[in-house]
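Exercise 7.
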Amino acid sequence: MAVQQRISAGAIIIRKEEILLVRYKNSDGDSCLVGPGGGAWNNEGINQTVVREVREETGLEVSPQKILFVEDLICRQYRTVKTWFLCDLVGGKLDRTQGAVEEGIVEAKWYSKEQLRNETVYPFILITYDWDIFFKNNWETKYLGFNTAKF
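Solution. The predicted structure, written as tokens, is:
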């Protein structure tokens, strides 16, 4: 069976030992946390996609700095290849946006590492790595492998 392909971008935004994540809930009441992001439009670069998606989902303005991960996964609707950028927060106000509502996002919030225990988090690497390492000059982009997402 052919699956629709999707190119997408996501943001890893860290400030004061916290990371910005958005929460999705499915019809069963299960939820997951994920960095803000989404599908690329035909007329934009992947770095422009991450800026637009963060604004649409959170009201915040970011500047992408470097690629941290490439995620390859099967989701509910798509086969997605997502480029995850480490982003600097440059403006805006965290808010529940119309774009978030339309995408089924129920919350956008800053989380500490401790708050992520017992949560389903995408990309999963956010649970296992010390976030400080993402800022190091010697960080090498990681391919996260081929996975299946529960959402």
